[in-house]
Write a structure and sequence with these properties.
It contains nine helices and five strands. The protein is of the alpha+beta class and 345 residues long. It has a five-stranded mixed beta sheet. Helix 3 runs parallel beside helix 9 and helix 4 packs antiparallel against helix 6. The longest helix has 84 residues.
Length: 345
């Protein structure tokens, strides 16, 4: 092997050392031959690259750092978007519960007022009978009784008016609650139908590191790393691409669907020299790799897709590292329409 030697600055030498270690690691991952890494290391340490090659390597290194910063920023945005969705869902649930409690209270009040109305109506009939008897008399006692009778009639009229207002209010609330419940049922049925389509599209992969479940009104597609990534890699292999492509085709026409792609790792620390800093970084890079494949394979609106990394902090099974190394794709219905409906009422 012949190597052109060129004088190196201190910064060039340090950069060459860094890139040398990186490419040695790649060589070791792709072959079990121990001679190749040694030869590569000797070649890199024994010679300096020309200035043009150094500038090219330095530019690539800076690009990698910029990509890393961009991925971390997107991950933070994704976490914020997910929290906003959860707050919206919690608020909708709280408002629905309040409507149900108010409706129950109004129903109880209506039944109580109805009983009072029946009693007052019976009293009114009794007073009318007395009134008819007193029409023939003209003494002071009779006039007092007539005055009392008129006062009772006015009270009865007020009670009837109040009862009418309460009944109308109750009907209005019941109608609003029925509308909200119908929309929630519609969303739930749509998600059940979508789960069936997703399961059908991924039939060949379920039981091979892939599961599809429905929980809390959302669909969770969980893919273990063995189905997607080689060890230590952020590049999806051919089998994983096939599964993701099938999933993308099954959901691309869902216009009211938000898609959250979450990357998860185990607790093993990242080895020195890896192209990512830590498990946070690794989980984000894997999530963005999956997002790109979903978009490349379908017409999914990018505004509805979010990539997030959760590192090692949300394990599926604390006692099973293999299950924790996974990608979870969360399919959630858009709740904006329901939220507007509750705000109007």
């Amino acid at each position: 092997m012949f190597i052109n030697k060129v004088a190196c600055t201190g910064e060039q030498a340090r950069s060459i050392g860094t890139f040398g270690a990186y490419f040695v690691k790649i060589a070791m991952l792709k072959t079990q031959n121990l001679v190749l890494p040694v030869l590569v290391t000797v070649a890199l340490l024994s010679a300096c690259v020309p200035a043009r090659k150094y500038e090219e390597l330095n530019t690539r290194y800076k690009a990698m750092q910029e990509n890393e910063s961009s991925a971390l920023a997107k991950a933070q945005q994704a976490e914020a978007a997910l929290k906003d969705q959860q707050v919206t869902l919690d608020d909708l649930t709280r408002r629905k519960d309040m409507l149900e409690r108010d409706t129950l209270t109004l129903g109880t009040s209506l039944r109580h007022m109805t009983k009072q109305y029946d009693k007052i109506n019976a009293l009114n009939n009794e007073l009318l009978d007395k009134y008819n008897l007193l029409l023939a008399g003209g003494n002071t006692e009779n006039r007092k009784l007539l005055t009392d009778l008129e006062a009772n009639r006015l009270k009865l009229q007020n009670k009837e008016d109040s009862l009418g207002v309460l009944a109308n209010s109750l009907k209005d609330r019941e109608a609003k609650l029925a509308t909200l419940q119908a929309e929630l049922d519609k969303k739930d049925q749509a998600m059940k139908s979508l789960k069936d389509r997703v399961s059908q599209a991924l039939t060949g992969f379920e039981g091979k590191g892939l599961t599809v479940t429905q929980k809390d009104g959302q669909i969770y597609v969980s893919l273990e790393n063995k189905l997607l990534f080689p060890s230590g890699s952020t590049t999806v292999d051919a089998k994983g691409r096939e599964a993701l492509s099938n999933l993308a085709k099954a959901i691309e026409n869902e216009k009211d669907l938000n898609i959250m792609v979450e990357g998860h790792t185990d607790t093993d620390k990242v080895l020195p020299g890896a192209p990512y800093k830590d498990n946070w970084d690794l989980s984000v890079l894997r999530a963005t790799s999956v997002v790109r494949i979903l978009q490349e394979s379908s017409k999914i609106n990018p505004l509805r897709v979010t990539a997030a990394g959760k590192g090692e902090y949300d394990p599926a099974d604390p006692n099973d590292k293999a299950k924790n190394r996974r990608i979870e794709i969360v399919l959630a219905p858009d709740l904006k329409q329901l939220y507007e409906l509750v705000k109007e009422h």
